[in-house]
Amino acid sequence: MYKNVTQGGVTMAKEILSEELWEIIQPLLPKLKPRRFMYPGRKKVDDRKALTGILFVLITGIGWEYLPKEMGCGSGMTCWRRLRDWNEAGVWENLHKVLLQYLQKKEKNDWSRAIIDSSSARAVFGGSRQDQVPLTGEKMGVNTTFSPMAKAPHSHRKSHQLIGTM
Fold this sequence. Notes:
By secondary structure, the protein is mainly α. The protein is 34% helix and 4% strand. Helix 2 (47-60) crosses helix 3.
């Protein structure tokens, strides 16, 4: 059973970002730019708080604008921008590799739950060009991947001919 965790004044049933996971992720995040001396603007939200907000939105499926301010993660837009910036910096690809290595070292990879398809892995040598169409009775089955449309008949009505002569 999970113990209740207080996050930014909100009590949650389960901690979203553990200390152990944060120690793995933190070195992969780009450093925040230092604030300007004159007109420094708002103070940036801490990376850990922003990541907690990002994970909360992704886990719960709520819209960014509905992120509870009581969590102390900043606004939904702040978390979304941080997600965008980290994505552009390649953080998620690096994090994926690091977490896979971490799980491999701990022998916790469960490959029975893994799926691979053409959107995540390229077929280097390709496949056969076209499968044979299975028989569905007396005739061959219909090819569902390619069905040419018949050409539309040309109209020989006089109204179309008149338009061209005006």
